[in-house]
Amino acid sequence: MKRADWVRVAASTATVAVCLSACIAPDVDVIGALGVTVDDQGRPVLVVEPCQGAAILVTLSFNREGLSDDEENETIGSWTAAEPTAEMSELVLSAPSAPWHGVGVDLPAGRGYIAGGQGHGDKQVLTQVAFDAGDLAEMEPGNVYRNHPDPDVTALVARSPAEFSAEVCGRG
Predict the structure, then answer these.
(1) What is the mean pLDDT of the chain?
(2) Domain with 40 in it
(3) Nearest to 48 by CA among 134, 118, 138
(4) Which of 30, 42, 104, 110 makes an SS bond possible with 94, Cβ 3.0 to 4.6 Å?
(5) For the purposes of burial, counting CB atoms within 10 Å of the CB of 172, is it exposed (0-12), middle (13-18) or buried (19 or more)?
(6) How many domains, in total, are found in the chain?
(7) What is the dihedral of CA 29, 31, 37, 38, to 10 degrees?
């Protein structure tokens, strides 16, 4: 895929991410989920779990705090897989490594974030995860955190990687 195609994919993902943060888009195919954790050095790590198909793009945006309804979330990072990734993988945000390629980002303090993912085409998405610096400070390495299924509960839910995979993919 050419770089220009990846840019269009990233733009499409940003649009889908904005919609998914504010509404349920009926015309998307949810193919997996994203979680968040920290490594042994306390660096934020996204956990990418494609359940059906493969992930090809992960984006990180600031959350919607302070934005009007017609403003888009500001994307602060975007990573592509060299090959479509059908297995669970980790993306260290400050130092991406295989299978993820892109520039590392350091997360500014005091902000909230939304990570989103995409498979082939702009209609295949991974369920987002929203978190902030306070959440990251409380995380324990080895656990994967995802948003509570009840949108009124703001706390993240911790799972082992196997439990996370089973829960988001209906395995087990």
Answers:
(1) 85
(2) 3-169
(3) 118
(4) 104
(5) exposed
(6) 1
(7) -110
